[in-house]
User: Fold these one by one.
Assistant:
Number 1:
Amino acid sequence: MFVIRNTFVAKPACASKLAAQLKEAVAAFQMPGGRVLTDVTGDFNRVIMEQTADSMAEFEKRMQDVMGSPLYRERMAGYTELWITGSREILRVV
């Protein structure tokens, strides 16, 4: 199993809006293990969207399906304006 973690550093005053938008996306696309986290320590304005996948092939297929969906474009409209930088970690559960 893999844990996929997308970490964003939101623009000042935009973290809660970004978190809400990502939380809606997690629910809309029923992402397995999906959850949204915000910082308590570390870099300010961090918003993390996490999900799980049994294999990289499953994750890649999910990404293709989601990114090609009109619902994705609707739910995620404007989200790139809410953050400064981001990264993705893919971790294997042992």
Number 2:
Amino acid sequence: MTLTPQRRFVTPEPDESVEQLAARALPGEPLEAAVDRIKGWNLHIFATRRPRGLLLGSDVVFVEPPRLEPVRP
């Protein structure tokens, strides 16, 4: 069995904000762009959680987009 490629991810530090996580996980990006990317790749955190954007230590926060694989018939 061959393993499929996996997406890079991080877990939040205690009391870490989305902005702090974005700066840590994507240091080469402008902060606003990094936050937008994190939010776009992690709708499971940002679409339904209240308060919006609350990070939990158990969250898996993806720091790269999903890999698109060819559709197999």
Number 3:
Amino acid sequence: MGNLANMTRYAAFLRGVNVGGVNLKMAEVVAALRGAGFDNARTILASGNVVLDGRGSAASVRKKAESALREAFGYEAWVLVYDLDTVAAIAESYPFEPEVEGHHSYVTFVSDPAVLDELDALADQARSGEKIARGDGVLYWQVPRSATLDSTIGKTMGKKRYKSSTTTRNLRTLGRVLR
């Protein structure tokens, strides 16, 4: 198990898993990450959320996790990694009413500051009922359930340019990750 003293508990959010033909079994993901030296890796829900212990920075954990997944599954793996305190702070800073009937509350994690600027600029184009606000390295948004894919942010997220640097999670999912 190694020395836990210098371990940090991280959330690793896999991008584009179980959509678009990349179907991974979460048990195999855990096995690949444990094989790469990440003790205590476990998945939350089946949508590419992993909590694991790692040494070093979030950036080094991200690199190591991406190469382990690319090697194990032969796909272009993109992973965004944050320590759990950071995830908690992001979730607590959600600027809208978190539970609104008929709406989804989302957090889009963005690793590239230029991409965050671009996404933030879309706030002016928000559709009816869609709310968009910038946070620290994230974009907060809320959208009517029926309009997620048709929303300003929903349409933009599908573009190839955003694949490597963004991933979106429901606020409820983040609550499960933090439990």
